[in-house]
Amino acid sequence: MTLPEIETLVNAVLKDILGPTGFEHAEVEPCVDHAGDKALRVTAHCAPGNILVPGRPSVRAMGALRGALLDRDEERCPHLFSASPDDEILDGDEEAADDDTREDGRA
Questions:
Q1: Does the pLDDT value for residue 100 go beyond 60?
Q2: pTM higher than the cut 0.85
């Protein structure tokens, strides 16, 4: 699948499941996971005052994302992160906020 196709699918799946929790939109980037496998970094952007918290909706979203991608022969595993306009990045945390390695090997 192309990145725009993946992003369209991801947004549809996440809106359906996480919409009630303040989900607005997602961005998808190819990356390499901690095991060295090609993966997809999915950043779910939430409305101000909302955060994506671990729990049943997040687990359902991950399962639905993985299933929808596999149904379309996309084998890269999605890794879900959240972002909110309320997020505060402290000094020195800019690099820690982006700790997955990109597909081209950049950090």
A1: no
A2: no
